[in-house]
Each structure stands twice: as C-alpha cells, then as structure tokens.
Fold each of these.
Amino acid sequence: MASLVFLILMSLVCAIGPHVTGHAYDEVYRAYVRVPASLTPYPHEDDIAPELKKALSRTRLDLGSVSLAGETASIEVSSPGRPLDPRITRYVDRNDLFSNARMADISADGQSGRIVADVQRIYFLFGTDLAGRDLLTRTLFAGRISLAIGLLATLVAMFIGVTWGAVAGYLGGTVDALMMRTVDVLYALPFIFFVILLVVLFGRNFVLMFLAVGAVEWLDMARIVRGQTLSLKRREFVEAAEAMGVTAGGILKRHIVPNLAGPVVVYMTLLVPKVILLESFLSFLGLGVQEPMTSWGVLIAEGARSIEAMPGLLLFPAAFLTSTLFALNFLGDGLRDALDPKER
C-alpha cells in the first residue's frame, strides 16, 4: 500500500512539479551555470556588484560604486566627453540577475548618472546543470519521460506477449512449436544491437524508445501467458464453450484472456521498473531521448561526467530513479503475494 501511495505521489509531482517550480525545463540561465543546490534565493549578496559591473563591462563607461537597497541595485556610471545613451540599460536587462533597468539621477550635462535595476530572486533548490538549467525542473520533467516510457513500453509488451502466448498456448501442436521457437530465436538476438539498429534507421525519439523496449520485453510475457493458457484450456468452462461451438477467437477473448488478468498484472508491475532501468541504461549510453527532452537516464549520464565537481547532478536524479524502482518492485512483490493461492 505504501509503495502504491508513493508511486501515485511521484507521478503527480512529476506531472505538476515543472509547472510550479518557476522554470521551464529547457530555460537557460547563463549567469547561473553549475550553481550548487541552495534553499536561499540567488543571487547571493556578494554576487550582485560583480555581476552588475560585468553586465556593463562592454559599454566603455566609467563604472563607479554599486549600492543595494532592498530588491534594487544601482551603479554610478559616467561617459566623459559624450552624453549617456539610455539604451545601455539593455546590457543590464540581458543579465539573468536583473530586470527593469533604467537611468536615474542624470547630471545636467547628461554625462553621468546612475543605472537602477531590480534584482531577480531565483530559487535553484537542486542547483543548475552544465548549461545553466534548473536541475529540479529537469529532474521532474525527466520523470515524466521515464515513467511514460516505462508504462507505454510495458503496455506494448503486454499486448504482444498476451496475444502471442495465448494463441500459441490455446492452439498448441505445430502452431505452438513454431511460435515458441520464434520466441527462442528472438531471445538469442542482442538487445543493444537491436536498439542501435533502430536508432540508425529511424533516429532517436520518444516513440522509438518505448516501441523498441516493448518489442523486446514481450518475450517473457509470452512464455508466462502460454503456460497459463495451457492450464486454462483444460478447465471445464473452456471445454463447455468448445462444445457449444464457440470459435477459437471467441474462447480466447471471452474465457482465456480475462482469466489471465492476475498473472499479467503482477508481471506488468515487475516489468515497469525493468523497462525504466533499460531506458536509463540506453540513455546513459547516448541512445535515449534527444535534447531538449530528457530522462532520468540522460541526467544520470550527464551527472556522471561531473561527479567530482558537482555530485548533485548525479545524486538527485539517481535518488528519484532508485526510489521509484524500489517502490515498483515492492508493489509487484505485494501483488504477487496477494494473488498467489499458496499464500492465502
């Protein structure tokens, strides 16, 4: 129960979180590249004066002292020999730390005055990545992608596996032998080679990821369903349907598949974490989703390259991935025990 509640909360946080963090997942803050996680807003007081002078460093103005009053920063500027150009405030507005820059206290000759700007307070609770993007927003958005791929790929695997296994198990004989030998052959194919081939042919994208993973993970599902079908087709209600002249398709649809719900649901809950882990592994190898989209695997791969300088880039996405995988596995184990007749 606790695992189910956790997964529901995780899904809601990943779905709603990026809308309330105040950042877009692909928004770049050039002034905040690789800043550490902090519960206090940026910029810090010591950073305001250097950043304000840096923003005006290309204007060829003589820069004076910087003063800070509440949420407003001002700097004394002068332009000997020529009047100040009001357009120089654009240089300040281009900096992520400031907004609404304007001229004030201009002298009579127009050659000196102050530039006043509002200081933008921004929170980066997880810090920012190598491009200056908010890591919290990207981690939550990545959760959407990873969870969506996990669920969609599992549904693809379920559809193919249940159909294949039920048909093979019910028809039996030569059809069963041919279909299951096909499964054995597909088992022998290297998964990574299959995905690389698809990436080369169709490029990296979201749809390809869940189709590729789902098209491989149905093999175990097919074997499980086939075994259950072999047992079910000897039951009295199936024999009664056959005696009444119900077609094979009707028996599969109305009697076999509905009675497979228990084992299929249990296996699905155990397959979702496996699929998410596979997607993360592929993204770690550079075969996952493309920028600007991201997933937990992509973030972990980026964080691994900077683990010494910025360990948070790896630890935060890894914590989300690990906790989700644990919850899914606990949920699967709980459902398996609840539906196992031997445990009743």
Note: The mean pLDDT is 84.
Amino acid sequence: MPVRDEAVPEQRQGRLLRPLVKWLAVAAIWAVIALGGLVAWYGATLPDVDLAAAPTRQPSIRVLAADGRELATVGEYYGQAVAVADLPPALPKAVIATEDRRFYDHFGFDLIGIGRALVANLRAGTVVQGGSTITQQAAKNLFLTPERSLKRKFQEVLLALWLEQKFSKDQILAIYLNRAYFGAGAYGVDAAARKFFDRPATKVTTYQAALLAGLLKAPSRDNPISNPEGAQARTREVIARMIEVGYLTPADAKAALAQGEAASSIRRQPQIGRYFVDWVIAQIGQYAIAPDRDLLVRTTLDPSLQNLAEERVDKVLASAPAVESGVAQAAVVVLAPDGAVRAMVGGQDYWKSPFNRAASAYRQPGSAFKPIVYLAGLEAGLKPDSRFEDAPVRVAGWQPRNFTGRYRGNVTLTQAMAESINTVAVRVGEYAGADRIVDVARRLGVTADLRVTPSLSLGTSEISLVELTGAYASLANGGFGVWPYGIESIHDASGRALYVRSGSGLGRVLAPADAAAVTAMLVQAVKSGTGRAANFGRPIAGKTGTSQNFRDAWFVGFSADLVAGVWVGNDDDTPMKSVTGGGLPAQLWRGIMAAAHAKLPDRPLPSLTQPPAAAPPPVVDEPREARAGKAHEPSLWDRLMRVFGG
C-alpha cells in the first residue's frame, strides 16, 4: 500500500494562497493610492484656512430705552472672546458632557463616539446623539457651509485633524464656544450669557452653564426667550448627563436646579416697544451712516409708560364693548411736549402683525383735525367768541351734516369746537381758505397729502396718528413746532458719537395767543363737550374724531406734561358699531394718561398761564425725509434694506 504524501495538500494550498495575497496586496496599494488621491482632491478644494479663520460678521444695532434698558438687538449679537481658563469649570464641563464626552481623548474625530451614537440612535428609533466631535463642529463653524454631503463631511474631518495639529484642546474648545450660535441672534457664549442672563460668560452659575450648553443642539427651538419651558427641560437633560460622566454629584445637581429655577435665572426681559423699535430703526440711516459698524441707539422711550400703554390697549380691545362693537385694532402715541416719543403702540400684537398703525397707517381723523382748521380761522382774523350759524350749509354741491342731525343756531367758535359742530367747522374753513389750512398743518409738522376739497375741514384727508399727535404738541407747548422723534443719540461700538440730538422742533409756528385760544376751546371740549369721557380731574385739553360710517375713532389731547393720541378701528376699514371718538378712544386715553400722571404734580396748561417763551432756533438735525416733506412711511422691508443695505 503506497504511503500518502502529506506535503501535497500543503503545497496545493500554498499555490492557492499566493495569488490571493498578491491580489490583496495590489488592492491595498490601489486603495491607499485612491485614498491619497481623494484626500489630495478634497484637500485641494478646502477653503483658505487663514482667510476663513479671520473673524467676519455683520454689524448689529442695539436699541436702548431712555433709562438704558435694552429694547432690542437687530442683526447678529456678539460678545467678548473668552478663554476656557477664564470660564467657570461648570461651563466647559457641561458642553463636553452633552456634545463630546471623549473630547480630550480623541484626535479630531471619534470612531468610538460615532459607534456609541449609532447604537443610541438605533435603540431610540430616531437621532438622539450626533457623531461629530467638538473639533469637527469648530471646523464646520470656522470654514464650511451648512451643506450636507459626503464631500463636506470629508473636508470636515480633514479640517478637524488640522485644528488638532495647530491648537491645544482648550484652544479648540474656546474657538467652538466663541463661534457657536446660541439662539436669539447671539453668537458666542459670552453674547449668549449677556443676552439671556445679563452677565458675562465668566460669571455664569452651574445652572446657567448647563442651559447654555443645552442650546448648542437646537438654539432656535430651545432658547429661553422664545421657549423658556423648552430651555428649562433641556437644562435638566444636560445636568443629568453631567451626573453620568461624573462632573456633578447628585446633591450638587439638585442644588443647581433648585437655585437656578427658583431664581428665574433666565433673563426674561419683556419684549416691549417693538413697533417703536421698527420706527426708530427706519430712521437711523437719516442721522448716521455706518454700515460696517455696530451701533448703539439711545431712544426717548419710557419703558414704564410703554408697558402701561400696551396693557391698556390689550385690556380695552379685550373688553366686551370693544368686542361687541367690532373693534379689532388700536394705536397709541404718547409724546413729551417737545415731540419726544415716550410710548408707541402700533397694534394689539406685534408678533401677529408688525404693521405699525401709529406711524404707518393713514386714516381719516374726522373732527380731530378741527383744531388745525380753527387755528387757520384765528390767523384769518376770527376770535374764540366769533359767532357762526349752525344751520345747513352747502359748498360746491356738497352738504355736510352734524353728527347728531340737529342744529343749534348762532354759536361761538368755542361752543362749536366743544360740541364738534360740523357746519361751523366748514364755515370756518371756507372763511380761512383751504390754502391757509394746509399751511397751518404743514407748520405743525403734518406731511400727509391733504386734499383741497370742501370736506378738508372735517378731516377727510388721511393722516398718521403720530403726525396728528405731534401737531397737538405745538398747542401743548405754546406754539412751537415739533417733529415727533425717538432717537436721542447714536454711537458706534467704540463710543464715538455719530449723532446727538441738539434740540427739538422748528421754532415758533403759532402765535402764542392763537395757541392759547385753541387750547382753551379744547379745554371746554373735555369739560362739557364730546370729550368728557377723557376727563380725569387734571388740567387737560383734547378733541374727539370720528370718520364716516364709524370706520375710525380718535381722541388726541394733552396735559402740561404729556401729549397723547389714540386711534381705534379695523385694518380692513370695516365699520365699527357706533364707536365714536368720545367712547372707547377717550376711555383708553384717560386710562393711560391718568395712570401716567399718578406721580406727577398737578400743573396748569402752560399756554394758558405763562407768558410766551423766546422761540428756540429751528433744529437742523431733523431727518432728511421729514425736511423734504415725505407723504408716507416706507415699508418695513424698505426700511430694513435702507439700514442694512441690499
């Protein structure tokens, strides 16, 4: 029996393995070449690292109230660059716990972290963890676009490796924190801390640190301004992760949560005056042109008075009389007698409708326009006790009627103003002439298009609330013209003054005697006439206004300290149910003015008690558009484009 050669199978196996090894080696070489080519190609298409690393950003505008309180930041908001060593230890720990637990162990990308995220996401059935490291996210923020593609991911890894070679771990973490978006327009951890907590990032508490770390995942959704409940829930998740990795003990975590939530650590500054902010921003380009610089704009707004006006508008519009009468909107303007805007409400809810009914809506003022007509009559030679016949009148085929449908016979101008008699206003307008009426209106700051028709005297030409209130300010201050204004100063980030208001108004525009005479008529209107509902026991003067078919209702009036105008109506011009200026508008006006005067001394109306002051020189720093006599406000889009360019 032949002996079997055991070496034969081994030789056969060797002959089979040698080609396989050869081909595997060749494949490996080609794979390395291909990978090298891929790296070279993607590397060649990387952005200029030095150029991309240079800080670039758009300028922002911070708008402050008169007391220094921030009303809004428009554009991107950046804080100071911070180093990790300067931050409270809880802040970098919170970020690492929630974003990249192996940050100090990997070399730019983390295969273990990717695997852990994959398992967690498969178990959850959704994406609950990401695989990108902090270094990768820093690379993305520094150099890359938000594009989602294999090429971009490959470039992200290459840039992460470059960052790891060039910077220390703490420097990379600082780059990430200083560049990341935290929501509400805040870029960088210091900007976010100042925005949400009114303190620098170097001073945040453990709870605040966890809240900031939690924003990195979904800054727009979970930021504490737009979603405080979501921000708190996310903060609790971050603190739980800090416990998991050993950065916090359960006792410390419990104390941080209790202290943070009890102290309302989130800076919940009320979003007041948004209509006013838009109005101010639209004017910045008329005073200062600095498209490449951050701007700090200090305004005239009184936050307490603004809050009061907004609350009163909400209350009145929600009341049964307003609802039953079909009143959907209201607007309020409160000025100082020199034209400084102390409060502006452009509608019921800015977030539902940012259209500013106080400044951009042009509506028929009705009888609220009559003081301008009577001023023209006085300048034409009439006196407060001049008499006219309250009887049917016809002008060029047009026959106006009194609101009541009744006629009183022979009455004085004072009586006619107090009772808002239409026939007498038309007769006074005819006596004075339309050109004189328009001239008086222009001197009082009215730039709206005034149609020269017989009905001009009854307020049929549309006008904005802020302009009409400004016209009444000239009566309140004894005859000096004013432009309603909201900007006191504009500075750049270095503190350099770009604009500082140097005065107010256009000099004397009314004779003191005429201003006093019309003021006295308006006093009677609130004492015994159509404006009685506005009376709150202080020396005041004012006038009601109601347009045809109850589409608009107004009350505009003043005390020695404040001038206020109120309009109510509907955006679609739908008639209200018998709402007159002496009803809801006068009541809303009284509610605001009575509360605003609660801590002010009781003062007589200056034009009735004081000798005329020397006329101040006309101000030369009024907005260019106002000096040119603009007819209408530009759209919100046009305003933003004018400020930011485009």
Note: Residues 34-55, 612-646 have pLDDT under 50 and may be disordered.
Amino acid sequence: MPFPERPRVVVTGMGAVSGYGDGVAALWRGLLSGESAIREVTRFDPDRHRTRFASEVPAAAIPPAPFRGASLADRFALAALAEALADAGLAPGFAGRTAGVYFGCSTGGIFETERFYDELTGGERRARLDWLVSHQPSGPGDGVARACGATGPVTTISSACASGTLALGSALDDLATGEVDITVAGGADALCELTFAGFNSLRAVDPAGCRPFRAGREGMTIGEGAAVLILEREEDARQRGARARARLLGAGGSCDAHHMTAPDPSGEGIRRAVAATLAAAGVSPDRIDFVNAHGTGTPLNDQAEAAALALVFGERLARLPVTSTKGAVGHLLGSAGAIEAVATVLCLEARLVHPTPGGGEVDPAGPVDLVLGAPRPLPAGAVALSTNFAFGGSNGAVVLAAVEARG
C-alpha cells in the first residue's frame, strides 16, 4: 500500500565477496590498508592481452557450488546473501513478509560458457551441458531469490556498469510505494576471458593497474565478486529490533546516449543523474561530505566525471573528499555499484573515507580532492554520494547517510 509520506529506508544487513576475500570484514580491512587487491590473472592465460592484471577472488575464498552447473557469479552472490541475512538477523522466508530481489549483473555465467566451448572444441567426447545452466545474467538474482524465499518481484538489471546502482534505486522505489516489505539488493559478476579480452581490445585497461584520477592513467582493471544489501523501511526495522547501519536517502539516473563506449565529455549527462539523486534524497550539494566516485581510471571517464562534479559542487569540489573503490578491488561491472555502496556504508560507520590505491599524481586537468595514502576522517552524521556510469550513457547514483545524520 502507498504511504502518505515517503518512508525512510535503512540498510540493515550487508554481505560481500571481493578480491580481498570472503566477507565485509575482509573488504574493509583491505580498503583501509590502502593496498589494492589487483594481481596477475590466474584463471586463464593473460599473455596475449594488453594487461596481465585483474582483481580475482582468492581461490580459498571461492564458495563451493551449491548446485551442479552453478556459475562463479552464482556462488559469489549466494555467499554475499548468506552474510547479509545473518548481519540483518533474518532467516530465509522473512517471516512471511513480502521480499523483493533487485540484482545487477553484466556477464552472468560466461566463464562457464567458455568452459563448455573449450570442451566442445577441444576433443572431449562430450561437453557438459550443465555449464550452460547459469549462462544468463539473470542467474545470480534468480538463485538469490530461491535461496532467500523471496515472494515479491525478482528483477535483474543488466545495464553494464550502472547495474548495481540502478538495482538499489529500484529496490528503494518499491519499498517507498509499499510494493514490498523488505528488499535484497545487490549484484554479482565473475571474471571471464571474453570480457577481459573485450576491454583489452578497446584499449580501456591500464597495463599497470587502475589509477583513478591520476595523470597518465590508461584505463580500468577488471574485478569480480558480489555484494548484497538488505533494505527495509526504518519503522519496520525498528519494530523488529534490527540495527540500522545507514540510511539510503535517494537514488537517481539519466541517459546521455552520447556514444556507445565514451561518456559525454561535458559531464552534463552525469550532472543530471547526480542532480536527480540529490533532489530525490532531499539534500543540497553542500550537504555531501564525500563522494565515492565511479572512478574507473580511463582517461575519458575520469575527465567527464570530474567535469560533472565541478558542475554540481563548484569551487567546493577542491575541498570535497573523493575516493574510488575501483582503485582497490577493480571494476566489478554489474556488481560495481553494489560493492561500492557497501564500501560507502562502511566509511560512514567508521567516519573514515578509505584511500584510493594506485600510483601517480592527481591529474591537474581534472582535479579532485582524491583521498590518498591513509583514510580521511569524516564528521559525525556524514552524507555520501556514490556514482556509477555505463557504456551507452546509463548513469546512476545514490545518496547514503550515517544513521545519526540530521534530517
């Protein structure tokens, strides 16, 4: 049922799998260390590609397959779900409450499809058809819905790098309208050679590793993993005695349709997404205490994002802390927005902005106050903006706030 006033929404549980390992605690330790989780690829031979580096989930942290044919993305998603449910104090089924699943995914089970193809063309007498079970990008979200007993909408958003952020926005909307009582929002993607080769062929990767907003940067670094956030209306969470970890104030988006792979260099499309997000959250630009930027490390993206942030924040941008989680765990594609939202919540809880790994000086042509070296303190009650943008011009952002934030 609709509410007379838009209800407040809080994060009550989080789970993550990343290049730092299994769990939110491993992610936070890694982010605070200032050391990246980017290493040489081990899953396939990277010698024929422009770069040898990615952020792989360590082999010891990869969860076992829960069913025959489960993809790596499925496994990451289910591990993050289990952690998030435990963190929120919830059990599958949600005690009869209507729950929806909103999941971002870009590549789905393409790694497993590659294995099927290798078997089919490599002289094997037969190829395992179950490798194709999880090919679709809807696989991780469907698996999460089955595992948690969701009875509400199950939505997969596959809008490339903005998918995870747009999933959070969809979850927020359905909570606000009363469509659901609780939401499981997030994303999952796994490293595969097809995606790795694609970004290499576009020359969109940095041979030395991702260096967001640095002079001389050459591109992104692919990552993998999953993140899940449990979202509830604040009053519902209070009634069941749940701990609120942060508030999700608003979400927004835009599409600039400037180019298939390049952002609008003026930053106008990104600016519209940020402006819509701030309006939905009911906060002014002056209320934002730090930005977790999309920050891929590509020359065009970082320049366009810096231009957009300058349009939104004006002269204040020179004093506004900016970080990029991608500098630490790589670009998680459809899961990027989800894991960066988790990182943003952790920053708000600890009152610290995690540093951005990667060498080099900040690019003077697109200057931002990049957090380097060590975490930067935040005030109590801080409010943060987290942004994600995709090929084709899909732009998304969310505003998250510490529980004690005013308003």
Note: The mean pLDDT is 93.
Amino acid sequence: MATLKHIAKLIGRHRNDSLNERERRELQAWCDLCDENRMLFERLSNQCLVSNILLELYSTGINEEGAKIRLMFPHKKQRPFLRALQLVAIIMGLLLTGIAVYSLLHRNRDKKITSVDNPSKDGLGDSLAPDIHRVELKLANGRIVYLDSNINGHIALQYRSVIYKRGDEVRYEWSTGDAQPELEYNTITTPRARKFAVELPDGSKAWLNAASSITFPTAFIGKKRIVQITGEVYFEVSHLAMELGAGVERKPFVVNVTSLPGTKGAGAAIEVMGTHFNVNAYGDEPVIKTTLLEGKVKVANRLQPGLTKQTAILSPGQQAQVNGDGHLEVEMYTDLQDVMAWRKDLLIFNDLDIKLIMLQLARQYDCEIVFKEPVTGHYTLSVMRQTAIGQILEALEFAGGVHFKVEGRTIIVTP
C-alpha cells in the first residue's frame, strides 16, 4: 500500500504533468479505491482552489488547519475524514514549506512556481553550511582589515576620512585634521554568503550583496564622485553640490561597471545626482542590469573601440540591460520586489532559467555547481535566505525536470 507521502508526491507530479506511465496507473488505482480519494485528488488538482487558499493564507493569516479543511470542503465547515486530513496536511505542508510546487498558472509549461516560506536546518542544507570567509577592507597601502570581526569603532585614517565600523556597516567621516599627502582608494569585498554596507565619504550609502566589491576614493574631491563595482550593489546616493565660479553646481555620482568576461563590451557607466538604484553586474551572468527605484539616472554602455555608444535615461521602475555585446536596452520593470529581495534576506526568482538560479544559490550558499548534463526549464521561486539549501533543492526536484546530488560542497545537477 502506497504511503500518503508517496501519494502526495504523485499528485504533485500530476500537477506538473510529469508523471510517467507507471506512476499514472498507480495514482489512478489509488483514486479508484474510494470516493474519498477521488474527491481529494480533484481538490488538490484544482490549481485555482489551491492558489486562492494559499493567497488567503498569506494575506489574511488563516491557519494551516483552516487551509486544509478549506481544501476538503471549500463550502462547508464540517471536519473531513482523518485520512483525508492527513493527506491534505502532507500536501499543504509541502506547499507551505516549499517541498511541493504549484504549477501551470501560466501557459508556459516549462515554468514551475515554487514557494518556500519556512526556514529549516534539516536535510541537505546542513552539509552546505557556509565556510568561514571574511568581508575585507583593502586600504590604500595594501593592508587588509577584516570587517566581519566583533570589533567596532575607529579603524583607520585615509586621506581626510576617518573610518568607523559598527556591526555590518562601515562609515567614512570627513576629518578636519591634516590630510594625508595624496588621495587614496579603498576596496570593500564581500565573499559568498555574506553581505555588507558602507557609508561613503559624501554620505551616500551602498549595500553589497554576496560576492561583490566596491572601490572608491576616501574623499570625493574632483568634479565627479566615481566608484567601481563588481557583483551586486544597491545605492542610495546623496545630493552633493560644489562651488563653481559665482554659482553652485551639482556633483554627479558615477558607478563604473567592468565588462563581462569574454565579451565585446567594456561594461557600463551609471551617472546620477541623488537617487536610489540597484546594479547587478556579476561576471558569470550574461547581462549588466541597472534598476531605478527613485530619482533619475543615465546609463551608458562602455564599448571596445569601433562600437557604437548608447545611453538611456531611466525613470523609476525602469531597468537598463547591457548584454555581452554592449547592446543597451530599457524595459519597464514593475515588480521591484524581485530586485530588492536580497536586501530583505529573500531570494525571489521569477521565471528564471535553472542555470541562473543555481549560480545565485552558489553565491548565497557558498557551494560549487556542476551540470553533468544539459538541464533546461524556468522556475519561479520565493525563499527566505535562512532556508537550508537542501529544502530548496527538494522543492526544485518536486517541480520536475531537475535532480540534484550533493557531494561535500558540490551540487551535481542532472535532468
């Protein structure tokens, strides 16, 4: 006799249209055993019903017990049979913790939608607990300061800036004392699985995602404020003006992004006055993305000699994309929650290729990814950063089309 958990998985695979013939016969036999089984199967196969209950669960706070009963008897308040409630409990538990996937909300049958909401220390994630890596501040003289230590307070003096650390943030404050002889540059680098924040000498703030860096002068004394980044950084840029002859002129803030490895492009430059925006420029991803949340920015591609330069002015909600050939495109990006999820310790992937999902998981969980065979498919995934990676992998497997094997800190991916 098949276990309830096994039947739950068969129903999940049926919802994804990924049952093989043997599994289809097995599920049909279970449905034919009694009317209760068939009714439950029909309820759990009703995408609209399940989705509405999940939405109500998240938006109004009905408890899981109520959600289970709603699945069994959507128009009645009576309690279901114990066996039925047990199976619904398994299904709802899977839906609510991400081990099951609700699919076919869109016509694209390759899209799988997964919800992972409850962090867990169980399963495969234990074997992939992050190694100890350090957030580094590289001073102008080459000295390395580890910023993830418990030590707070004064760190160093660079040019006219005094560097202070407090928790997961460093702050550069302008000093009225004697300046060091020449302008200096500092670099902050985050490893995999770590984030950090810095308040720059002009009061602008930058938040670094995992595996990212920012290089900046210890004082903005020229006509422009210029920084260089890799990886992903969110900026809140302060307005800054300078005296120029008889008047005052605003001092632009420029973010330079290096080219993607092995491409024709030379990166991108983002110029702003005072605004909030996010730049995603990981070297192992195919596109440099600049998303504007507030204010206005100008994005320009930086090309090798002989190629055409393009520029675009972004309004809030727009995203500029520079691909490997240096081509710049702008599109309306209405779901800014996806872009800013990492700031809230969330991972949200919206109809994303499995290869790009695995790249991001590798950065966030500090692991290596090996594709043994070509794997295709797009998934929509919402997960808390604290969730064990084993739970995420199980959710993706349940969606169908992909399997994982964990060996040490390496995840092997197969169809």
Note: Residues 53-85, 94-127 have pLDDT under 50 and may be disordered.
